[in-house]
Amino acid sequence: xxxIVGVGICEGQITERASKLISQAEVVFGSKRALQLASKFxxxxxxxxxxxxxxxxxxxxxxxxQKKVVVxxxxxxxxxxxxxxxxxxxxxxxxxxxxxxxxxxxDLCNAIVIDAHARNAEKELELIEKRNLxxxxxxKFDPSIFGTRRVxxxxxxxxxxxxxIGKANEIKISSDYSxxxxxx
Amino acid sequence: xxxIVGVGICEGQITERASKLISQAEVVFGSKRALQLASKFxxxxxxxxxxxxxxxxxxxxxxxxQKKVVVxxxxxxxxxxxxxxxxxxxxxxxxxxxxxxxxxxxDLCNAIVIDAHARNAEKELELIEKRNLxxxxxxKFDPSIFGTRRVxxxxxxxxxxxxxIGKANEIKISSDYSxxxxxx
Lengths: 184, 184
What we know:
The structure is a homodimer.
Chain A: E1 2-6, H1 16-24, E2 27-30, H2 32-38, E3 45-48, H3 54-63, E4 69-73, E5 89-91, H4 96-104, E6 111-116, E7 132-137, E8 150-155, E9 162-167, E10 178-182
Parallel strand pairs in A: 1-4, 1-5, 2-3, 2-4, 6-7
Antiparallel strand pairs in A: 7-10, 8-9, 8-10
């Protein structure tokens, strides 16, 4: 039995359903951050995931044939997450996308979410002609591609949070876990 | 103090942070369904919202100047929700969009979310040329506009759940709270 469980990105964002799945698991896998967020609910054994590749996914799926296994996913498993990598039941969690929309007062139905984290998303950025963009970005991402459009940069949500609003060509991204919101 | 709090769409989807905000509120507003989902956390007075208009939003915002007020939002306040209608702090919740993506194994970063619930979204449907679409739909929505494309229809998530997969022009929507997922 394999459950892929979203644990949110801030302390206290785990749902009741998620906490039950975690506490019933015989084995829990997760990144250091995910294990921290879920720690008070874990009662079985737990393992920190340091690599994320086909081989480890295969091992976890094999183990789940015999045991109740939970794989934790920071945020939501279906937002650039583990939900498409592993075969199992997915339990949603609060994603950084939702936090950013909440902070900015923007509705998901007026935005397009783009994963530009450690990948080239150039082609997708053309969607700015259609809607606001919410971009999961890292330090390598250069906002100046959007010229003088109005943008918001969100860094360290739930931590030492910083929200910067300005023109795209005047903003620099300094964290590998940033969200850039671009108004159409 | 006004908090707009997402309560998810299924039983048990309220986060720890959300439950605290609800239990600390002196006055709680919400639809019948939202009040049901949050009932065990409500300790102050509560009022069922039957209408959703500028006047009631103004009354709630006035009251929130003197009291700790929570407005419950089924799902997430930033998904076709109350988060853009009221001025206050938004606490995210699990939306039907997330449940649909979880069920279908699809990532939000490969889809565009469209609100076609009691509104005409015709122009936005052209985005199918760019990405998969996840459409919040009602009975009036006619899937046949997508021809023979592959679609999934999700009805009554968390309830008497039904997932139908087929061709767009062979599917009929029978519930006013449906999600239609259209593969590009």
